[in-house]
Amino acid sequence: MVLVRPLAIVNSSNAKWSSTQEKMLSSDYPFADLHLESPEQYVVRTYLQFLWLPESIMPLALFVPSIHRVQDQTLSSSHSSHPLHTLLDPLLLSTRSSSTKYHVELPQILANNGGAGEIEETMMWFALNYEKVGSDEGSDNNEDAVMIEEKWKNAWLERLERREYKSYSIS
């Protein structure tokens, strides 16, 4: 019989970040001063994070529990619908509006490299800048690279459109 000693990991040294590194981590994140946000701002931020950030870090299954964290005394339960509908209704689009958003508006913003600078657009640019294009599709031909990037952006927008539809069904 062989005795196996339990493995112990010692992590006594924490990585020290310079102030420049810490600033760079959050300089392009579209939301700041989270501790000062109102319930309306919390709902908008939460919705946009779940919509634009990858499933691996913002799983849709956690969307409803996250929204339920809203605590606001102005939300009365005397309405015929749930009090959170007051905060969510401005964010939720009809099927037609959502289709227009992903097939007309967002491709136009991407083509123009900018739009009106709204908070959702800012979140879109944040998410886009951190997405990784598949490395296996690399090409030396400049024309092919442009086509690959365009194909990737279209697939990315289609995936996000499906995600937005899913968020409607669970909210």
Largest sheet descriptor = none
Number of strands: 0
Task: Give the termini distance in whole angstroms.
Answer: 56 Å
- Quote the beta fraction: under 5%
Structural class: mainly alpha
| Percentage of residues assigned to helices | 40-55%
**Count the helices. How many?**
7
What is the overall shape? globular
Key features of this structure:
single chain; 171 residues; mainly alpha; 7 helices; globular
If you had to describe this structure to a student in words, what would you say it looks like?
- With 171 residues, the protein is mostly helical.
- It is 53% helix and 0% strand.
- It has 7 helices and no strands.
- The longest helix has 29 residues.
- The chain is globular and about 65 Å long.
Topology of helices and strands:
Elements: H1 19-26, H2 39-52, H3 63-67, H4 85-88, H5 95-112, H6 119-130, H7 142-170
